[in-house]
Amino acid sequence: MVLTRHFKQTVIERVQRDPDFADALLDEAATLFLNGELQTARLILRDLINATIGFEVLAAETDRPSKSLHGMKSQKGNPSMDNLAAIFSVLQKKLGVAIESRTTRTA
Known about the structure:
Elements: H1 7-17, H2 19-34, H3 38-51, H4 54-62, H5 66-72, H6 81-95
């Protein structure tokens, strides 16, 4: 019998032992949002929140109800820009990183 484990547990453990992986997830979530891939970005943010601060701490830090934050990060969630900015701000502080954007022109 093959032993398997849930990928979310793998993500949590990797984030906790590898800060660069956590930074890469935050970067990927921001990039996906900017590129209009909202569903995938929300799911990555949800996993990153669970692996770092958890929704209860995020709720306290953003002064938003935990239940609302969970809903925003679901597949059908629809977070406002204010809520996204607050979430990214808290995660940036937790991870000790800054998000910078650059624009490039495509042909």
